[in-house]
Amino acid sequence: FSNKGYHVNPIIINPERKERLNDNLMLFFTGFTRFSADIQSGVASLMSEKHKQLMKMLDLVDEAQCILEDSNKDLDDFGRLLDTTWRLKREVGSKITSGSIDELYERGLKAGALGGKLLGAGGGGFLLFYVQPDKQQSVREEFSDLMEVPFKFENSGTRVIYYTPEAFDKSSSVER
Fold this sequence. Notes:
single chain, alpha+beta, four-stranded antiparallel β-sheet, 7 helices, 43% helix, 10% strand
C-alpha cells in the first residue's frame, strides 16, 4: 500500500502444498454481524498511535509468503503465524474484536487450532482456523453450535455463488 494505491504480488505455491493448506483450514460463521465502516472509522483514528504493531504485521507478510512458497518450511508455522498476527491486530483497536469473538477464538485454540483470524467486518463474520487434520474433529465438536462453512481455494477467480438457507444441509457441512 502507498499513497499511490497498492500493488499485488502473487503467491506461488505448488498445488500439493496449496491442497494441504486448504485441508488445514476450517471456517465457522460466528453469527455476529457489524458494519465495516463502524470498525474502520475507529481503527483509522488509531493508526498513527499503533505504528509499531502495524509494522510488525507488515513484516510478518513476508514471513507468511516464505512459509507458503517454500516446501521445505513447516506449513504448521503458517497456522502459528496466524495466531501471532491475530494477537497483534487485536492491539490496534478495541473495535477489532469483542469479548464474544475472543471467547470463540480461545475455544478454537483449546480444541486444537494452531491459529486463526476473523474474516468480515470485525467483531463478527467468520472465524478461520488453521487446524491439523487429526485435531479437526475436536474443533468441530467444540463449535457444534456454529455453522461450519466448507470451502476450497478457487483457481479461476471470483464467481457468484448462490446460497439459500433452505438448501443448506448441515450434515454435509462437516465433511470435507
